[in-house]
TrEMBL record:
<dbReference type="InterPro" id="IPR018445">
    <property type="entry name" value="Put_Phosphate_transp_reg"/>
</dbReference>
<comment type="similarity">
    <text>Belongs to the UPF0111 family.</text>
</comment>
<protein>
    <submittedName>
        <fullName>TIGR00153 family protein</fullName>
    </submittedName>
</protein>
<dbReference type="InterPro" id="IPR038078">
    <property type="entry name" value="PhoU-like_sf"/>
</dbReference>
<dbReference type="Pfam" id="PF01865">
    <property type="entry name" value="PhoU_div"/>
</dbReference>
<dbReference type="InterPro" id="IPR002727">
    <property type="entry name" value="DUF47"/>
</dbReference>
Length: 226
């Protein structure tokens, strides 16, 4: 007798759990950024270097999971999720880990020091962007239920609420980002122009964490709309 999960179990080497494992690794990678930033603000470059190495290692581990999933992904259709759907979500998740590595690498490479009055908002900005990544991770972990129900029923309402919360978080990050940029703009004349240029780049990259997290949500939202 077929259970309701028979077809799902047939693909039970399903792409869903490896996709979730990849997102988990991405979240662990991103979660190391606050400790890295604390070390930078304390001018502790040895500790910052150790944190950067940890972030780089986690990014490589995420990259290995990405490559493994791509190699094992069947070429046909998989229930409610096509191969293209999986690959697109995977690609966006991968960019989140890459961005975390880029942030740490650039700050460490230039031994960047941020103006003291910028630091509180910058920390808040980073924390809120990480919140967006976590929320995207929660949504990815709903894929099991969505696939089993054929992207229908109560689970769709649950995920839509989570997507709405992700949008709110991303809007928060936009507002904080504007505030950080305005604070930096007001003191540009007191800083070295090259340093200012790279500070803006770091601000944009931190915002990129939330932007990519929202893109994960957007890809899943498109699946719900089909």
């Amino acid at each position: 007798m077929f259970t309701k999960n028979f077809v799902y179990d047939l693909f039970g080497r399903s792409p869903v759990r490896p996709l979730q494992a990849h997102m988990d690794k991405v979240q662990i990678c991103v979660a190391e950024l606050p400790a890295f930033f604390e070390a930078v603000c304390a001018d502790d470059w040895q500790r910052a270097g150790a944190q950067q190495q940890k972030i780089a290692l986690l990014e490589r581990e995420a990259d290995a999971l990405k490559k493994e999933l791509r190699l094992q992904l069947p070429k046909g259709m998989m229930l409610a999720m096509s191969r293209r759907d999986v690959l697109e979500v995977l690609t966006v998740q991968d960019r989140i880990a890459n961005t975390a590595k880029d942030i740490a690498g650039l700050i460490l490479g230039r031994k960047m020091r941020f103006p003291e009055n910028l630091v509180p908002d910058l920390k808040h900005f980073l924390d809120r962007c990480i919140d967006a990544v976590r929320q995207a991770g929660r949504i990815v972990h709903e894929l099991d239920e969505l696939v089993e129900t054929g992207f229908r029923g109560h689970e769709v309402d649950v995920v839509n609420e989570m997507l709405t919360e992700l949008d709110k978080i991303e809007q928060d990050t936009d507002a904080i980002q504007r505030r950080v940029r305005e604070t930096l703009f007001r003191q540009e004349a007191d800083l070295f122009p090259v340093d200012v240029m790279f500070m803006y780049r770091i601000i944009d990259n931190i915002g990129g964490l939330a932007d990519e997290a929202q893109r994960v949500g957007s890809r899943l939202q498109l699946m719900l709309a089909r």
